[in-house]
Design brief:
It is built from 7 helices and 7 strands, in the order E-H-E-H-E-H-E-H-E-H-E-H-H-E. The protein is an alpha/beta fold. The protein has one domain: NAD(P)-binding Rossmann-like Domain (Rossmann fold). Strand 4, helix 4 and strand 5 form a beta-alpha-beta unit. The chain is globular and about 45 Å long.
């Protein structure tokens, strides 16, 4: 019996990378897990099959979070199919990079829709179903605390918005025993940002440890916050960034 046995979790963007690692980690701790995807149906199904092969319960939900109603719909589907919702992990988001002059209004709207609006709307929907012990955990970014150079305006804007949002959620939901937190990754080795990519050496040079982290490093932090040990942590961010923000 794991520490999350009997709990239900929803992980947005759970088909690959950090989201897939989080979904599998929470399932390994005993939670039934729903995971969303927007286009990678095969990858999402593979994650679900891996969870089920290990004895867990998984649900795959398609959700295009650029659509205003998608986040709440994913929550309602999870509740209907898995019987409730105790843990919401807002992982879906865009990795954005480029000069200020190149940012368009359309790109800004798309990034904020997924990285900010969907987080708020998913939390709003989830809070209607959560009871004491509920957890809302968002995957942020090391850009919440440090912007090391040019070309990160949009990324820093979107991820920094999660700080105020999460503090507001913590105050609003704290009296009900529901926590709201952020995990801020640094350079993490995923297919979106591989440890052998073009900018990998530069990213390593910005960390105190001089290396990339793994998706499992982030998943471990999420498991901690989702479990009993995280009951007194709310309204704050935990940096899992190898000392990027030191």
């Amino acid at each position: 019996m794991g520490e999350l046995t009997g709990k239900v979790a929803l992980v947005t963007g759970g088909s690959r990378g950090i989201g897939a690692a989080v979904a599998k980690r929470l399932a390994g701790a005993g939670a039934a897990v729903a995971l969303t995807y927007v286009s990678a149906a095969g990858q999402a199904e593979a994650v679900a099959k891996e969870i089920e092969a290990a004895g867990g319960r998984a649900l795959v939900v398609r959700a295009d979070l650029t659509e205003p109603g998608a986040a709440a719909e994913a929550v309602e589907t999870t509740v209907r199919e898995l019987g409730g919702l105790d843990i919401l992990v807002n992982n879906a988001g865009f990795l954005t990079y480029g000069p200020l002059d190149g940012i368009t209004a359309e790109e800004l709207d798309r990034v904020l829709a997924v990285d900010v609006r969907s987080v708020l709307l998913a939390a709003q929907a989830a809070a209607r179903h959560m009871t004491a012990g509920g957890r809302i955990i968002s995957i942020g970014s090391c850009f919440n605390g440090r912007v090391p150079g040019a070309n990160f305006v949009l990324q820093a804007t979107a991820k920094s918005a999660l700080v105020g949002l999460t503090k507001g959620l913590a105050r609003e939901l704290g009296p009900r025993g529901i926590t709201a937190t952020i995990v801020d990754p640094g350079p993490i080795d995923t297919d979106m940002n591989p440890a052998d990519g073009e900018s990998a050496e530069f990213q390593r040079s910005l960390t105190a440890l001089g290396e990339f982290g793994t998706a499992e490093d982030i998943a471990a932090a999420v498991e901690y916050l989702a479990g009993p040990a995280g009951r007194y942590v709310t309204g704050t961010s935990i940096a899992v960034d190898g000392g990027y923000t030191v």
